[in-house]
Automatic annotation (TrEMBL):
GO terms for cellular component: mitochondrial matrix. It comes from Strigomonas culicis. Its cofactor is FAD. The electron transfer flavoprotein serves as a specific electron acceptor for several dehydrogenases, including five acyl-CoA dehydrogenases, glutaryl-CoA and sarcosine dehydrogenase. It transfers the electrons to the main mitochondrial respiratory chain via ETF-ubiquinone oxidoreductase (ETF dehydrogenase). Heterodimer of an alpha and a beta subunit. It comes from the Eukaryota. GO terms for molecular function: electron transfer activity; flavin adenine dinucleotide binding. Coiled coil: none annotated. This is Electron transfer flavoprotein subunit alpha. SUPFAM superfamilies: Adenine nucleotide alpha hydrolases-like, DHS-like NAD/FAD-binding domain.
Length: 323
């Protein structure tokens, strides 16, 4: 990753999100984006800080890792994290603070920015220079280039537009940073996460998605069968989730999750702008739809104008037969 010569004085702090004792994928994308601006320092806090710090120090692009001990940081509460971020910026003179566009990043970045009288810039998809960033508006209908005059720039980074930093190749140093006293304004109660042995939508290499063309809840099973054959994650548009045809964890796009798999297959999906905004960074896009004028065909790499109830079972049978 190259770095513009005009950005030499920039120092970037990346907030490391921890999931299951590991660095979250969104953080790795934020590191890649941050490396375009200047030297990268990662901040990790909580009980897993030291273990995660060892992994972060080996991550390509990370020059330093700050670790902070404190039970009040364990669950990423923004009321506790924001004062810590503000303290790190003030103490070490960081010019930028980046985090992934996840619940973790979106909770902390605006609050930390407010503490230092700065404006948070969300959903960054490209970096022009240390002051200028590109982001999408109105579900991708508009792309804005914004320039910030704030002394410290706070940004959340859209992970699907930046490659994840390699977990090897770095040799960053690890330093301790003092904790800020707990505010006690919020208390973690519990996480309610649906358990599944299926691939996760946001990290799966292959995604099969169904839209209104699936018609009813019973028909959704043919997509699940195809996804199982492909070892793929199953996605769904908002319309069929709201109709009860698919579970809520399958929902994504503008109203849910953002995906960028190596292969994305849309079945019975028209390709409205809200949907496209959430998956357009996929490497290869294939579409099955009876309407040859469906907007999705304009961005698809491959398309089949046919009834999905003929195509999907045939694909599943063909794949299973080849195993």
């Amino acid at each position: 990753m190259f770095r513009l010569s005009s950005l030499r004085l920039a120092k970037v702090l990346v907030l490391a999100e921890v999931a299951g004792g590991k660095v979250a994928p969104a953080t790795l994308s934020a590191i890649t984006a941050a490396a375009q601006v200047g030297p990268v320092t990662a901040l990790v806090a909580g009980k897993d800080a030291q273990v995660v710090a060892d992994a972060l120090a080996k991550t390509k692009g990370v020059e330093e890792v700050l670790t902070t001990a404190g039970d009040h940081y364990d669950h990423g509460l923004p009321e506790e994290y924001a004062p810590l971020v503000a303290s790190a910026v003030t103490t070490n003179g960081y010019t930028h603070v980046f985090a992934g566009t996840s619940a973790f990043g979106k909770n902390i970045i605006p609050r930390a920015a407010a503490k230092l009288d700065a404006l948070a810039i969300s959903e960054v998809t490209a970096i022009k220079d240390e002051n200028t960033f590109v982001r999408q508006l109105y579900a991708g209908n508009a792309i804005a280039t914004v320039k910030s005059a704030d002394k410290v720039k706070f940004c959340t980074v859209r992970g699907t537009t930046f490659e994840r930093a390699a977990p090897e190749g770095g040799s960053g140093k690890i330093s301790e940073f003092p904790a800020v006293a707990a505010s006690g304004k919020a208390k973690f109660v519990e996480d309610k996460i649906s358990a599944s042995d299926k691939p996760d939508l946001t990290t799966a290499a292959t995604v099969v998605t169904g839209g209104r063309g699936i018609k009813n809840k019973e028909n959704f099973k043919i997509l699940e069968d195809l996804a199982s054959s492909l070892h793929a994650a199953v996605g769904a548009t908002r319309a069929i989730v709201d109709a009860g045809y698919a579970p809520n964890e399958c929902r994504w796009a503008r109203q849910g999750k953002t995906v960028a798999p190596n292969f994305y297959l849309a079945c019975g999906v028209s390709g409205a702008i809200q949907h496209v905004a959430g998956m357009k960074d996929s490497k290869v896009i294939a579409v099955v739809n009876t309407d040859e004028d469906a907007p999705f065909f304009q961005i698809a790499d491959y398309g089949i104008v046919e009834d999905l109830f003929k195509v999907v079972p045939a694909l599943t049978e063909k794949i299973n037969a080849s195993k």
